[in-house]
Amino acid sequence: MWSFFWRPTPALFNRGFLLGPYCPVYGVGAVICYLCLGRIENPLILFLDAMILCSLIEYTTGYGMEKLFHAKWWDYSKFPFQLHGRICLYGALLFGFSNVLICFIVQPKYLEFLKILPPVCLDVFAAISAFLFITDTVTALIAWTNLNRSLDALHKWLSEKSNHSMDEFSDFFFKKYPVTYYMKNREFKSVLITGI
């Protein structure tokens, strides 16, 4: 599902986790909603059910990605009526309205359009799209895993450097001032101040 955003100049651009200009949570969410809610004929019930289902998908996806990759791809914490920055009322309303639009207007027209295309064209398009999407997903997973390893290594290196610098400063400080410390394994056990 392509992400197209209006800027001063409209353009396709990277929306987050994957490298391409698409956002899988929207596409997967739209498919799940269509499969689960597509038979609902009452627009109000569809709207309310879609709000709940989309919020559940968005919250679960956000939570899972935060735990897996230690990063946040969206944050609604500044919006009113939000929950842990992962979902908010504004987004739920937008998803509910979008689902009514998709189920009653977009999807029927889209299915009519697909019927006029030769099946071989649909098969080739589906195969190419699946290949690109799977390649992108695998590449992104490898990239994020490598990034997490690099960040862990950097954190370890910075911690070691910081500890070493603090040790050097402590040694310098204790030699310069008339303070006697009883230390064992670099832990302060007692402090005796002399010269008082």
List strands and helices in order, with pairings.
Layout: E1 4-5, E2 11-12, H1 24-37, H2 43-69, E3 82-83, E4 87-88, H3 89-115, H4 119-176, E5 179-184, E6 187-193
Antiparallel strand pairs: 1-2, 3-4, 5-6
Helix pairs in contact: 1-2, 2-3
Description:
- The protein contains 4 helices and 6 strands; from the N terminus they run E-E-H-H-E-E-H-H-E-E.
- Helix 1 packs antiparallel against helix 2.
- The radius of gyration is 28 Å and the shape is elongated.
- The protein is mainly alpha-helical.
What is the terminal separation in angstroms?
75 Å
Fraction of helical residues: 55-70%
Structural class: mainly alpha
Count every beta strand, where a strand is a DSSP E run of 2 or more residues: 6
Q: How would you concisely characterize the structure shown here?
A:
The chain is mainly alpha-helical and 196 residues long.
